[in-house]
Design a protein that fits this description.
By secondary structure, the chain is of the alpha+beta class. It has one domain: HIT family, subunit A (2-Layer Sandwich). Helix content is 24%, strand content 20%. It is built from three helices and five strands; from the N terminus they run H-E-E-E-H-H-E-E. It has a five-stranded antiparallel beta sheet with strand order 1-2-3-5-4, covered by helices on one side. A hairpin with a 3-residue loop joins strand 1 and strand 2. The chain is globular, with a radius of gyration of 14 Å. The termini are far apart. 23% of the residues are buried. It binds guanosine-5'-monophosphate.
């Protein structure tokens, strides 16, 4: 599989500091920031700093250090906002869209972390 990456996508611009963001957590390999159009009281996006378009691209080509850092940063956001079941927010949902069928708008891997309300069924269609 020959993976591609568009360096002009909006999250690449955020990583280069060309567009501002509301940072939640930044680590060596990962950035977590607030979604500009939140779908729930908590809506954080977590992106790797490396140039990966999709989850499958990241899983295939990222280093173990990047993958561990990405996973642990998601956990750190869950901890920071008290999202785990039994904590204040009583649970959360992770969403990773990929490609046209997955309706991925921004072609840089991002995990949505949603919480703060009962989120409804996973899929409507
Ligand atoms: P997707 O549909 O690709 O899974 O999700 C893209 C997400 O990026 C959407 O939830 C959208 O609100 C968010 N988004 C798009 N542009 C920006 C931006 O410039 N800044 C931030 N913080 N979020 C953005």
């Amino acid at each position: 599989m020959a993976y591609q990456y568009d360096t002009q996508n909006i999250f690449a611009k955020i990583l280069r500091g060309e567009i501002p963001n509301k940072t939640v957590i930044e680590t060596e390999h990962t950035l977590a920031f607030e979604d500009i159009a939140p779908q729930a009281p908590v809506h954080v996006l977590v992106i790797p700093k490396g140039p990966y378009q999709t989850w499958d691209h990241f899983a295939a080509e990222a280093s173990e250090a990047e993958i561990v850092d990405y996973t642990r940063t998601i956990q750190a956001v869950v901890n920071q906002f008290d999202l785990a079941p039994g904590d204040d927010r009583e649970g959360y949902r992770l969403i990773v869209n990929a490609g046209e069928a997955g309706i991925q708008e921004v072609p840089h891997l991002h995990t949505h972390i949603l919480s703060g309300r009962v989120l409804g069924r996973m899929l409507r269609d």
